[in-house]
């Protein structure tokens, strides 16, 4: 019996079912599990019951995911003209989108105006001027810089206005003819420190009070994304959306009591655990005394999550009949950068042996390339 049976309950698919899919589609194979996405979305709504989820399309833009989340009642966070076009093609109404990239291309702004996208973000004076010239009267949220301690990716390194300049930027946006509606922020991704949310919400609370004193009646708070991969304490007793909600949700009551909308941009926590990759061994060698296995997907493919999202994965081979040995896993391209993992303990493998990688749904297939002519994995939605 292979070690894949130890986590079949998490995968939902049996080894037999995976083998059948590989027989039909070959590898690399990227499997999207419909039921897991539905479970994750409904759990998020349960943990944050009055928060409006805007799925962060960048996490995984596959049309089947967008269509399914639309059926579940999600709105969508988009960052470019192409993402807007994708979501609209899936039948999502324009009023269910937020253009949440604070630095936008001009053609994206023009297209968003043409399509009737209702809400945008910004974080600096130059963006105010650009927005005002291309979309007078646009409704906007001011994105704030946040602490990112405990987050793997610090998004405030690149985005966000300092709290002390917030009121001035609100005034300038209003004076330029835009319609400021509130604040947004993003604490980094994935976030394992709820204090980042709490501190920023306290800052937002203070800024709302100061803004009201000078005539602003703000209506929206966008708490961004960064929610962990795992949903409940049963999956992860330390870091889970459930535990994050228990720490953060009470701090939203002030905004609800004022009749404000609170929105969020979950991505990873909706799709991360809902996809798996099946890859196989296409080559085997011993180099400098170390065993190397070459797989048919790599860093330029689905494993792009490793350099771009700083992700780590577990590798579950179907073959598990011998004592595990340390090895190097490499991708199929000609680039020596294309090394997936080193010092991995795996039972000895042969050509065409399959390896399953779970929890690979976020920031992976989305950033995969066709470098060296290697196609992206076939996607199946089941």
Structural account:
- The chain has 13 helices and 18 strands.
- Helix content is 31%, strand content 23%.
- The protein has two domains: 3-31 and 273-381, Beta Barrel (Lyase, Ornithine Decarboxylase, Chain A, domain 1); 34-271, Alanine racemase (TIM Barrel, Alpha-Beta Barrel).
- The strands form three sheets. Strands 1, 12, 13, 14, 15, 16, 17 and 18 form an eight-stranded mixed sheet that branches.
- The protein has 382 residues and is an alpha/beta fold.
- The relative contact order is 0.16.
Describe the protein's topology.
Layout: H1 8-11, H2 15-25, E1 29-32, H3 34-47, E2 52-56, H4 63-71, E3 75-78, H5 81-89, E4 97-99, H6 106-115, E5 120-122, H7 125-134, E6 139-144, E7 151-153, H8 166-175, E8 179-185, E9 189-191, H9 195-213, E10 220-222, H10 241-248, H11 253-257, E11 261-264, H12 268-271, E12 275-287, E13 290-295, H13 305-309, E14 316-317, E15 325-330, E16 339-346, E17 354-357, E18 378-381
Parallel strand pairs: 1-18, 2-3, 2-11, 3-4, 5-6, 6-8, 8-10, 10-11, 13-15
Antiparallel strand pairs: 1-12, 7-9, 12-13, 12-17, 14-17, 15-16
Summarize the structure.
By secondary structure, the chain is α/β, with parallel strands linked by helices. It has 13 helices and 18 strands.
CATH topology of the largest domain: TIM Barrel
Beta-strand proportion: 15-25%
Domain unit count: 2
Shape: elongated
* Sheet with the most strands, sense and barrel status: 8 strands, mixed
CATH architecture assignment name of the largest domain = Alpha-Beta Barrel
Individual helix count: 13
Mean pLDDT: 93
Low-confidence regions: 1-11
How many strands in all? 18
Helix content: 25-40%
Q: Termini distance? A: 25 Å
| CATH homologous superfamily label of the largest domain | Alanine racemase
At the first level of CATH, the class of the largest domain is Alpha Beta
Radius of gyration: 22 Å
> What structural class should be given to the helix and strand makeup?
alpha/beta
């Amino acid at each position: 019996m292979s070690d894949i049976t130890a986590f079949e309950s998490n995968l939902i698919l049996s080894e037999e079912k995976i083998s059948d899919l590989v027989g039909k589609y070959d590898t690399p194979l990227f499997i999207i599990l419909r039921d897991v996405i539905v479970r994750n979305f409904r759990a998020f709504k349960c943990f944050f019951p009055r928060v409006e989820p805007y799925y962060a399309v960048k996490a995984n833009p596959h049309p089947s995911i967008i269509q399914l989340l639309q059926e579940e009642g999600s709105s969508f966070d988009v960052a470019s003209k192409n993402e807007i076009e994708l979501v609209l093609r899936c039948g999502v109404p324009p009023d269910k989108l937020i253009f949440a990239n604070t630095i936008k291309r001009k053609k994206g702004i023009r297209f968003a105006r043409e399509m009737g996208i209702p809400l945008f973000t910004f974080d600096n004076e130059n963006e105010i001027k650009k927005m005002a010239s291309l979309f007078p009267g646009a409704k906007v949220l001011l994105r704030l810089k946040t602490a990112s301690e405990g987050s793997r990716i610090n998004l405030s390194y690149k985005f966000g206005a300092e709290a002390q300049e917030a009121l001035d930027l609100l005034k300038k946006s209003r004076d330029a003819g835009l319609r400021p509606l509130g604040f947004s922020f993003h604490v980094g991704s994935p976030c394992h420190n709820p204090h980042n949310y709490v501190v920023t919400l306290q800052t937002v609370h203070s800024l709302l009070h100061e803004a009201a004193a000078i005539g602003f009646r703000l209506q929206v708070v966008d708490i961004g994304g960064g929610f962990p991969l795992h949903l409940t304490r049963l999956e992860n007793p330390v870091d889970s959306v459930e535990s994050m909600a228990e720490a953060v949700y009470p701090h939203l009551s002030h905004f609800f009591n004022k009749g404000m909308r609170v929105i969020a941009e979950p991505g990873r926590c909706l799709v991360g655990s809902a996809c798996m990759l099946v890859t196989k061994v296409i080559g085997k060698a011993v180099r400098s005394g170390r065993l190397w296995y070459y797989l048919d997907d790599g860093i330029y493919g689905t494993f792009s999550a490793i350099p771009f999202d700083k992700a780590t994965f577990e590798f579950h081979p179907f073959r598990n009949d011998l004592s595990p040995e340390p090895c190097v896993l490499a991708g199929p391209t000609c680039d020596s950068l294309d090394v997936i993992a080193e010092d991995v303990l795996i039972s000895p493998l042969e050509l065409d042996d399959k390896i399953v990688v779970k929890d690979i749904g976020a920031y992976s297939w989305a950033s995969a390339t066709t470098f060296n002519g290697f196609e992206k994995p076939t996607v199946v939605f089941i």
